[in-house]
Design a protein that fits this description.
The protein has six helices and 13 strands. By secondary structure, the chain is of the alpha+beta class.
Amino acid sequence: MLYQLAAHPEGRDSLVDEIRKRGIDFPLTAGLRSLAATKSGNDSTLLHTLDEAERRRMNPTTVARPSIAEATELLERTRKATLGAADTMPDYLVKQQITRSRAFGGTSNWQVYDRLTIAVSYRQAIGEQYKLLSVNGMPPGEEEREGSSYGDKLGGTTSSGEYVSMLTQLFAPETRADFEAVDTDTIRERRTVVYEYVVKKLFSRQTLKFQESITSTPLQATVGYRGRIWVDRETNRVLRLESISTEIPPDFPITAAKSLIDYDLVTINEQVHLLPSRAVIELADHLGNQREQTRNDILFRGYRKFGAEVKIIDIDEKDFPPDKPEEGEPGKPELKPQPPKKP
């Protein structure tokens, strides 16, 4: 099945399902990992599934997949914990460090074209607001600084809503998401259960927005989505969220969209909350015969309480603690400036 993937990439899901159901009864050597990566085009789902199957082979007791009843109970506890946390989320401020890349022709040959630093405030009453602090280390023009949709003026690919709304909407009853426990995994030494989910367009609030230039009229489409969540088996909290857009209108310029968000515990005003630590957003679009991919790699730094008397327009770099490099944080590739094409 692995050797057939190059000619039949649609067989990836079947191979993953077989590994999840059967497990493996052989050591997963470096050579086998390399072969799987080469034949699958470095498919992350397949490689992670193999790694977890190896962990189950080595330690079948502690890494065993939960029963249907256990998985259902864990999911319901997680739903309650997630919706409850959203209701008690404090008003906070955080800095986004965004590396934006572009590739052409569906090659995924990413080239960095700029780096942004953005201040984001969240208030229960009004949601998220943004202020652009710098572009490639330089202060932006006054007209680009703040707003709920700063990307309309900045250009390039931008995103919003990685904080409270995505998980809340996924677990909201009106979304009618279908969940299925499919695997186990280990994230930051935490044992998790992996659930696949599907949200139909009819019940979705996820939207895609495309704007060819900063002067053109933006196009917007509501889409369905599917993906996976990684739930901590002890804390009942989501540590990772994957979202892949579905039911995209065939005439819409954006042809594919996906995101992967890692969550971690953050202390704000002496209270611990689960908030994003990193997100990767990827889009594919076409204009005529030209195909383009974009990728935003986002780091979240310097969470703190956001006072009611403070306005986002008053925030500056000095309002955040100095950045501390973290182990495992991706290095910064060489910057190759290119003119922004679209938000």
